[in-house]
Amino acid sequence: MAPQRILHPLLMDRRYWRNRLREQQLTRHGLMIVPRPDLSSGACDVQEVRFRAHDGLRLWGLLARCPLFREARPVRLRRIGPCDAPEIDRACVESGSVDWILQVPAGRRLEDRVLDVLRAFEVAESLEGVDPARISLATGDDGARPDEFLIASELRSGSIVG
């Protein structure tokens, strides 16, 4: 596993995030879910998920799950770059987890990406068939977590103080 990067102390200060988090709460997520039969199969149901970020920008991703599992399932959130084609992790879906791929818009600032991840958590927690206590953030190909995942995890856990 790659060593954890050191982030600027301001990015790990709850006071820095207080107003941004308040702004996040004031914006409705405007969730829209569209079935994607072109990407689905008998063992993998794929849906396109669109929702609003704190600043009104429309975020996009794919959500894949096995329709054979009826109980609440864990979610693995992954991110891809603006030019990357999303690929469903079939092994993740077949193991009973929900594979959620979030595409990061081009030129998005780190602070906004953190809030986008927190919004993705909110959306995932509202979905039927998802276990809100088991939402995890995937690591990158290099084994490291993206900075926005590190900060969002700390904000959610309450580890960031201030």
Structure characterization notes:
By secondary structure, this protein is α/β, with parallel strands linked by helices. It has 4 helices and 6 strands. It has a 6-stranded mixed β-sheet. The radius of gyration is 16 Å and the shape is globular. It starts with 13 loop residues before the first helix and ends in a 5-residue tail after the last helix.
Could you list some keywords that capture this structure?
162 residues; 6 strands; 26% strand; alpha/beta; six-stranded mixed sheet; single chain; 28% helix
Write the layout of secondary structure elements.
Layout lengths: L13 H13 L5 E4 L9 E8 L5 E8 L7 E8 L9 H5 L3 E6 L6 H17 L3 E8 L9 H11 L5
Helix pairs in contact: 3-4
Which spans have pLDDT < 50 for at least 5 consecutive residues?
none
Note the run of SSEs as H and E.
HEEEEHEHEH
Report the major sheet.
6 strands, mixed
Radius of gyration over C-alpha positions, nearest whole angstrom:
16 Å
Look at the helices and sheets and give the structural class.
alpha/beta
Widest sheet: strand ordering: 1-2-3-5-4-6
Estimate the strand proportion.
Answer: 25-35%
Q: Mean of the pLDDT scores?
A: 87
Oligomer: single chain
Number of strands: 6
